[in-house]
Amino acid sequence: MALPTRRRRWASILTVTALAVAGGGALACPAGAAPQQVDFPTHCIPPAVAGIPPIDGTTTAKITVDNASPKVGDTVTVTYTVVQAAASNPTDLALPADIMTPTGKVSLGGAQTGDVTVAGPKKNPPVPGKAAFPSFSMTGTFTVTRAGQITLSPGDYNIHTSYILELDTPCTVTNPPAPVSETVTATDGTPANTRAISLSSASGDPGASVTVSGSDFTPGATVTLAGRAGGIPTTDTATVTANSQGSFSGSLVVNDRATTGIVAYEGSSWSQDKGAGPAAYAVNDNAPVPAGSQKLTTTVKAGTLSMSHAGDAVALAAVDFGKGGTSAGKLQTVTVQDFRGGPAGWSLTGKVTNFTGPAGKIDAGRLNWTPACATEPGSPSTCKAGSAGAVGTSGATLASTSDGTLTGGEFTVDAGLSLDVPAFTPPGSYSGVLTLTLA
What we know:
By secondary structure, this protein is mainly β. It folds into two domains: 9-29 and 303-438, no CATH class; 38-283, no CATH class. The protein has strands at residues 9-15, 19-23, 38-44, 55-65, 75-84, 100-110, 114-119, 136-143, 148-163, 165-173, 182-186, 196-199, 203-204, 208-215, 222-229, 232-241, 248-254, 261-266, 275-280, 282-283, 305-309, 325-330, 334-338, 347-352, 355-357, 360-362, 367-375, 384-385, 389-390, 396-400, 409-421, 431-438. Strands 3, 4, 5, 6, 7, 8, 9, 10 and 11 form a nine-stranded antiparallel beta sheet that branches. A six-stranded antiparallel beta sheet has the order 2-1-32-24-30-28, with no helix packed on it. The radius of gyration is 26 Å and the shape is globular. The relative contact order is 0.17. Keywords: Signal.
């Protein structure tokens, strides 16, 4: 699902002798954030049972990647977030939570062309009758095969609902391609594998057949098509033979409800060097409730991304006039809670102003930190500490987690602080503002 819009900013006042904490306005995105939210006209076809005509509206979406500077041969994870769908609940009937399964495609352009199939989890808040569909996210992967700038644009998407009836609301881009939302810049590498696959559909009922198309496989090779649940094989398999150009098109019947992706590989077992995928695929959950049984459903509600400080003051060591040197201390511990339950990671950054005193200033570039980050047991994500070095007015990363299929958790962030005070800085107390931004 989409990231929550509620955000916060924490600003910390840093002096040579103390560090005070104050509250403030909205969170800003970290410097250098490339993805752009784009709008594009969309043609949606409501289910026939709704009895309403097609909807021509505007979709608002954005594309993000886990690696904006890959090398040829790298696998890039793509997240397609529909912020505002063009379609809405077509009936007066309220839809309960967790009955929507979104699937779609992301269009590649520039140095590399093609489509990336993406799929999202079966997760949504309740949708009142006639109300707009909520925001949702879908993920998939592609392998970089060409150096240069590769553009990513939102493509067609489908909203499948499993409530009373199994219904689809397909939405297509009216004038493809949609505007570019993200660009990655790939550099030359030594790829051992440029094999690639695409699917005719990103979802289907149990027992449905999906066409798998492949390229850059060994000419004449026997290729196994197989289902995956994350990194674990499922029971769905088929074989096909690559033609003289190394391409193929074959059908895979997907029966295993655990299947979340499809791979293709040469040889007797999966190999990263001789395989491609996984391409995202969702199996619709339409199993009937057996006679005399009751289907029990619960809901896990998504929370927010937030942080808190352990205290509001930090004493930095005093230095002597004429000697100067390091004024050292420790950042008050910051606790980050990521309870959103979506695919996006987070980044905690900081920047500082110049330190001003009664008779001069100390440049912001003289403040250095040594970040540290710990992950609480059971957290889906793993926290990574930023690099040691200057903070400065342009800012630096204190800690972060990566995007993934499911992210979240609780994290403890610390940092050693050191202010390099020039030897003949006029005596007095100097203070600056250290702003920590979580996004």
